[in-house]
Design a protein that fits this description.
This protein is mainly α. The protein folds into 2 domains: 74 residues, no CATH class; 219 residues, MetI-like (MetI-like fold). The protein has 13 helices and 2 strands, in the order H-H-H-H-E-E-H-H-H-H-H-H-H-H-H. It has a two-stranded antiparallel ribbon. A hairpin with a 4-residue loop joins strand 1 and strand 2. Helix 5 packs across helix 8.
Length: 309
């Protein structure tokens, strides 16, 4: 188990470096001068040049990159000139809202996806299986922004049941979390369906039935546990992907989270905030993937054995 953790941590460090490097490069290749955007169109050339010097933008790209890596080594994530405070503090102020949205969407997708997948995998190729397959294809192919707008039109504009934007109550969380969970639900359902259908054909299920267990008892007591390894893996991976999907959902529902902050910071070329957000998200993804690896190592003893060998 310790060797598994060591390997994953080594990969995680490489992922963090890659995310930092990629975001550093992309944000600087985007058109627009941060100093000019901050000072406005009425600023003179001398004012813009002075601000560019204070921001370190008068140096070459390689020099800026090496300087940034040096600051990161001292846990200095830069200063947000738009907010006038450390960039990581700005990012951390928004993390809680995104975490609430992501956790709620994950819970919805996990419960709904497991339920749909178990129903479909219990009797493969049945009418119910085909119905669930059609539902998952629809959910996975549905554009997130369109789904969010349709939910607002239905539950806010037509029925008047839920708020369409903002925060302040649990009701505000329902529409954005459901919107974010829809494609995730489809993925969990499809993986669960395949795993359960395969597990129900295994000899140990026949043995369980011969001992007097019903098919439903064999499903919940034996097949489901052995089907959880790929499901846990995909949940861990998709939770990281949800952070990317939150960018769209947060802007549709005016949710004050990390996604909307990144969009605002990209538009104003607030380099430090974008880079700090990218580093934090990459770190969260690395941790989630590590937890997923440890979870399915605990679920499947064969993985633990392979990790020790």
């Amino acid at each position: 188990m310790s060797s598994l953790v060591t390997r994953r941590l080594a990969v995680g460090v490489f992922v963090l470096w890659g995310a930092v490097t990629l975001m550093f490069t992309l944000i600087r290749l985007a058109p627009g001068d941060p100093a000019s955007l901050l000072l406005g169109p009425d600023a003179g050339a001398d004012e813009v040049a002075a601000l560019r010097e204070r921001m370190g933008l008068d140096q070459g790209l390689v020099a800026q990159y090496l300087s940034y890596l040096g600051r990161l080594a001292h846990l200095d994530f830069g200063q947000s000139y738009r907010f006038g405070m450390p960039a990581m503090d700005v990012v951390l102020d928004r993390v809680q809202a995104t975490a609430e949205l992501t956790v709620a969407a994950t819970l919805i997708a996990t419960v709904a996806g497991l339920a749909l997948g178990m129903l479909a995998g219990y009797r493969p190729n049945s009418r119910l299986d085909r119905l669930v397959s059609a539902i998952t294809i629809l959910l996975q192919g549905m554009p997130t922004f369109w789904a969010g707008i349709m939910l607002v039109l239905l539950f806010t504009a037509t029925l008047g049941l839920l708020p369409s934007s903002g925060v302040g109550s649990p009701q505000h969380l329902i529409l954005p979390s459901v919107t974010l969970a829809l494609p995730f639900t489809a993925i969990v359902a499809r993986i669960t369906r395949t795993s359960v259908a395969d597990a129900m054909q295994e000899p140990y299920i026949q043995t369980a039935r011969s001992k007097g267990l019903t098919s439903a008892q064999a499903l919940t007591g034996h097949a489901l546990r052995n089907s959880l390894v790929p499901v846990v893996t995909i949940i861990g991976l998709q939770m990281g992907a949800l952070l990317g999907g939150a960018v769209i959902v947060e802007n549709v529902f005016a949710w004050p989270g990390l996604g909307s902050l990144v969009v605002e910071s990209v538009s104003t070329r607030d380099y430090a905030v974008v880079q700090a957000a990218a580093l934090l998200v990459a770190g969260i993804v690395v941790v989630l993937n590590l937890l997923a690896d440890l979870s399915y190592a605990l679920l499947d003893p064969r993985i633990r054995t392979g990790a020790r060998s």
